[in-house]
Design brief:
This protein is an all-beta fold. The chain has 1 helix and 15 strands. The radius of gyration is 16 Å and the shape is globular.
């Protein structure tokens, strides 16, 4: 079983010297209403996910404060199973600066480009693979999970290097509520939100 941090996040880090300079391109601004504009990331926010593969397991993720990125911004510490991710969130998007298990990036990768709306599309990568990850909001869907019923933006991410696809469903403020990962030859891992707790800002 892959660790949950691998399932919930970008799997990307720069070269060994930490000198990766990320690239972002907005291919389409999208159409219609702005569905997801922010994900709640206050210290103490907790989300419990069930991971369904060969067997079922559950793992909790949570935010536990801030960390200064050297030469960069203050980033949130997002703790997952086995690793801490460093994320920055602005009105423009959710950015990945690295993790406790790898090098920090000179510029962040763009995990989410706000606002999420139908047909919004973007890519992010580094100078060697500028379109490493390609994203598109393919649908606006209402889905049911053990944590409740949510109106979501269904975001498909294609990893051009691994030839794999990950589909994620995001709800405004709540964040990730469901995920399906497919990789050759025919593997499928599904993640679903069981419950969540959001602290007051």
């Amino acid at each position: 079983m892959r660790p949950l941090w691998l399932l919930l996040s970008l799997v990307a880090c720069g070269p060994a010297d930490g000198s990766s300079a990320s690239i972002f391109e907005l291919a389409s601004p999208g159409d219609g209403e702005d569905l997801v504009k922010h994900i709640h990331d206050s210290p103490g926010d907790r989300r419990l996910y069930a991971v369904l593969a060969e067997t079922m397991s559950a793992a909790e993720t949570y935010y536990d404060g801030m960390v200064q990125i050297p030469g960069g911004p203050l980033a949130s510490r997002y703790v997952t199973e086995g690793q801490t991710l460093y994320q920055e969130q602005t009105a423009e998007g959710l950015y990945y600066w690295g993790s406790s298990g790898g090098d920090l990036l000179v510029n962040p990768l763009v995990e989410l480009s706000y606002p999420l709306k139908l047909n919004r599309a973007w890519s992010t990568g580094d100078s060697i693979y500028p379109r490493w990850y390609q994203y598109r909001v393919e649908a606006i869907e209402t889905i049911e999970t053990p944590a409740g019923t949510f109106r979501t933006a269904r975001v498909v991410m294609y990893n051009t290097r691994a030839n794999s696809t990950v589909t994620r469903w995001y709800a405004d403020e709540i964040g990730l509520v469901q995920r399906e990962a497919r990789a050759p030859p025919d593997s499928l891992i599904k993640t679903v939100l069981l419950r969540y707790q959001l602290e007051a800002k």
